[in-house]
Amino acid sequence: MVQANLDRVTGSIDRLLDAALDFREMPGAIEQVRHLFDGSKICLGYFGPDSHPDDAITNASDPDLNAFLYRELMPDAARFAARVASVPIGSAYRDQILFGADFRDSRLWREWMAPQDMFGGMASRVLDVDGSFWMFDVQRGRRQEPFDAAEFALFERVAGVMRRVTLLHQQLGGVSIEREMARRALDELSLAVIIVDRAMQFAYANAAGDELLADPAGPLGLRGGRLWARAASEQSGLKDLVVKASDLIGARGQMLLRTGDAEGRDLSLCVTPLSAAYALPGRANDVMIVARWVEPAGGGLAAARQMFDLTEAEAKLALALASGLSLTEVAQQQGIRMTTARTHLARVFWKTGTRQQSQVAALLRAAELPLRIR
């Protein structure tokens, strides 16, 4: 029997729990467990319809043997997995008891396990996941003594920890996927989303926010890791809005940054408290800033036609009006008579439920989706 003192056991368990939070640490963690049991081989494997031997976390993986297993021995491997699947979750077992003496006559053992010095092991099915499962396994080699009763009892305890580790990893993995999907969705928006703390210290920006902050001629930027308005006259107003929103009194403020750029665009900001449900640990007072360029509707021909069932001519006239042109200017620009322009406008009014040109412009701007152009 291996002399496993308390420090070695607790050290191995602590390493496994750390690996639950960062699965990249799992190879080192299970290697420490292998040394704890003086095993020849250790494995945390995932078995399911889409799994592959290379997916296993082990102390010594042989790609050639795994390719051979996947190519030649899958019927044997499927029978092996089915037998393991019959073991209750969390229960530990010994190979020779679960599979019987004739298991060593199988090609799986002779051609895949024996070449890796897997001559007697303890294992546990630690977690079920949608018809697949995680299995934890420690083996000893040909020239080693079998695991005794005390070692098996210790393995049962470690397997219980491994069950919690894999369950936590599964839960955290789902959270990570959800966060990644949310991040990608935010990056599709043409709205700039920026998160700062009460002191204007920068924490996050989506893709549009990164572009806004990186523009040296833009109205917002970063200085020493803090958000600032490049116009000194607007910095104090922005800071006041951030402080009020950070005080969690539900204060939501808006302001317009005058840029005077070549395109004549201003930047509209909305500053709002970030819900505690979305705050990171230790950042309960963060503030979200949503920014959008204020500019006339200049595109969206297909969208205008689809949303309001406009003809192409009607949509072009409506978008031109939304860009700020008068009806006379639109007629001249598009080379149509005023009577034709008035007819188009009357049809636009009827299809959009509006009565004035200003209402048409506001409606088109409001209906425009804030998605980034690819």
TrEMBL record:
It comes from the Bacteria. Residues 307-364 form the HTH luxR-type domain. InterPro entries: Sig_transdc_resp-reg_C-effctor, Tscrpt_reg_LuxR_C, WH-like_DNA-bd_sf. This is HTH luxR-type domain-containing protein. It comes from Bosea vestrisii.
